[in-house]
Amino acid sequence: MRALLRHVTGGEQLLDQLECAQVRDMDDGAMGSLEFAGGGHRSLGSCIVEAEYLDRDGVTVSIALNSDTNGLLYELDMWKVDFAPLLEYPDFERVTIKT
Q: DSSP letter at 26?
């Protein structure tokens, strides 16, 4: 997530949130998505950055780091295009940032 945020305008402010962030796995069929814990009712705001990489089996994994409506980190949404379980998280060198 740090590597993704370095490619975003204003990402430095969001990097500070990672220091004390609490996350939980999302019920997504083991595709690797994480939800950031936060107080009160929160809802999806906007996509901060999108990226993709090839999982160990050669299947594309799409990544979207999203904020909530208050601009705070909301979720790291990951999904394999074939909806299979994620085999491994990538090294950043294997990730392509989408512009």
A: -
